[in-house]
UniProtKB/TrEMBL annotation:
The lineage of its organism: Eukaryota, Sar, Alveolata, Apicomplexa, Conoidasida. It comes from the Eukaryota. GO terms for molecular function: amino acid binding; carboxyl- or carbamoyltransferase activity. SUPFAM superfamilies: Aspartate/ornithine carbamoyltransferase (SSF53671). The keyword Transport does not apply. GO terms for biological process: 'de novo' UMP biosynthetic process; amino acid metabolic process. This is Aspartate carbamoyltransferase, putative.
Length: 484
């Protein structure tokens, strides 16, 4: 009798081991098909970007190429097209990372990125370093230059940075002093002390060197020669209570991921308006608004809550969102209201678009009243490290004493430190907010945001933090190469 007949069952069915082998092959084929479908979907998402029109895509490519060699110390130094190009690059890099594209680790091969931090940092420094490493660049890490460098011996900031410029292709700098690098904020307050004015002027001169703003032909020629030998770009990791531009970019990227249709329309409108302003500078804002209304943009609203005076992330993000027509609500803790000069800058951006600054830049004392009207809530902690010694001492004294009814800045800080202050909770959000509201926070958080929000549908802040790697990968790529 043939062997095959002996192996078969009496009913003529194939042997069990054969059936098992066929099932394994079938499972493997299904798994491969599923992986291929996922890769195709990721590729499609990468190709589509945020749904920009073809003519906008071309402008974004030009803006990306123009970013090469560009330093970023303020959101004001970036055009609307550059912002959109950065976010589109971040989306593509995120897709490449998700599908484990091996080309990523060779993108910045041979480049060196240095992080020079004069203040503590977890997310900004580590995400920049992770971004550089994932792109194949080398990293010079300096988590505390105040202690572990020649700064402790008295070396000036300028000399320290010049050394980094010789070692690296890009420098990420965080410094406790507020830098006024734009012309709109170049003059210091008349009430500032002479030493404070001296520090601000020193940092402005330092910033000007990096922005290649020479004062004369000879200096420009020297800078051009240095630029030919080596060009090191400066990326701000935060300057005191001033700005945090890269945080604002990752915040906007997180918002854009949630509101892709809005971002595609808002970015296209902002780019178009910027071009019109360059071509027809005398055009009235109302005429610009009428042209913009031909292709209406979905309305978006965001509320800032917490320390809006010292929170540098608030300053950068508000200036960025205003350029894209987002309605802003400011709900500061008492004693931590934003500066009038900053608010005037935000309102001017709305006026330039023909938008009513009173309607698009609003203040409120009630978080509960605003929550039903906004799509995003941006929460910030109290910046205890920004308080002057007298205020810090008062806060410490207030924390040791029973809570007083007076809501001074020191008392507010003390109450928050004790956990007695107002905080964002899941109960508050479920009672007052839209079901689709998303909560953002630059982190770290203290008592202002309850952990019971973490598992809810409102939480977006951990995804927001994770996006920092991809946005900073995009910054490094465009500033060093002008492309991915």
């Amino acid at each position: 009798m043939p062997a095959s007949s002996l192996a078969a069952s009496p009913s003529g069915a194939p042997p069990a081991n054969c059936v098992e082998s066929q099932q394994q092959q079938h499972d493997q084929q299904q798994q491969q098909q599923q992986q291929q479908q996922e890769q195709q979907q990721q590729q499609q998402e990468e190709d589509e970007g945020f749904g920009f029109a073809a003519e906008v895509q071309q402008q974004l490519q030009q803006a990306a190429a123009a970013m090469k060699g560009h330093s970023v110390v303020s959101v004001s130094s970036l055009s609307a097209a550059a912002v959109a190009a950065l976010l589109l690059a971040a989306k593509k890099l995120k897709c490449m990372y998700t599908r484990k594209d091996p080309a990523l680790r060779h993108t910045l091969e041979g480049k060196v990125v240095a992080t020079a931090f004069f203040e503590p940092s977890t997310r900004t420094r580590c995400s920049f370093e992770a971004a550089a490493l994932r792109l194949g660049a080398g990293v010079i890490s300096n988590p505390d230059l105040k202690v572990a460098s020649s700064v402790k011996k008295g070396e000036t900031l300028e000399d320290t940075v010049r050394m980094f410029a010789a070692y690296a292709d890009a420098l990420v700098l965080r410094h406790p002093e507020k830098v006024s690098s734009s012309s709109s904020s170049s003059s210091s307050s008349s009430s500032s002390s002479s030493s404070s004015r001296g520090r601000q002027l020193r940092l402005r001169r330092f910033s000007a060197v990096w922005l290649r703003l020479g004062d004369g032909p000879q200096q420009q020629q020297q800078q051009q020669q240095q630029q030919q030998q080596q060009q090191c770009v400066l990326l701000s990791g935060g300057d005191g209570s001033g700005e945090h531009p890269t945080q604002a970019l990752l915040d906007l990227f997180t918002i854009a991921e949630q509101q892709q249709q809005w971002f595609a329309a808002a970015a296209a409108a902002a780019i178009r308006m910027q071009q019109q302003q360059q071509q027809q500078p005398q055009q009235q804002p109302q005429q610009q608004l009428q042209q913009q209304q031909q292709s209406p943009i979905p309305q978006l609203a965001l509320a800032f809550w917490g320390d809006l005076k010292y929170g540098r992330t608030v300053h950068s993000l508000a200036l960025l969102l205003a350029r894209f027509g987002v309605r802003l609500f400011f709900i500061p803790l008492e004693g931590f209201e934003p500066d009038g000069e900053f608010i005037n800058q935000v309102r001017t951006l709305f006026e330039q678009q023909g938008l009513d600054p009173e309607a698009f830049c609003c203040f409120s004392q009630s978080l509960e009243a605003v929550l039903p009207s906004v799509d995003f809530l941006y929460v910030t902690r109290l910046q205890h490290e920004r308080l002057n010694p007298a205020a810090a001492a008062a806060a410490a004294a207030a924390a040791a004493a029973p809570a007083a009814p007076a809501a001074t800045a020191a008392a507010t800080a003390a109450a928050a430190a004790k956990g007695d202050g107002v905080r964002i909770t899941a109960e508050l959000l479920h009672a007052c907010a839209k079901p689709t509201l998303k909560v953002l926070h630059p982190l770290p958080r203290l008592q202002e945001l309850s952990p019971n929000v973490d598992p809810t549908c409102f939480s977006l802040y951990f995804s927001q933090a994770a996006n920092g790697v991809f946005v900073r990968m995009a910054l490094l790529c465009l500033c060093l190469k002008g492309e991915i």
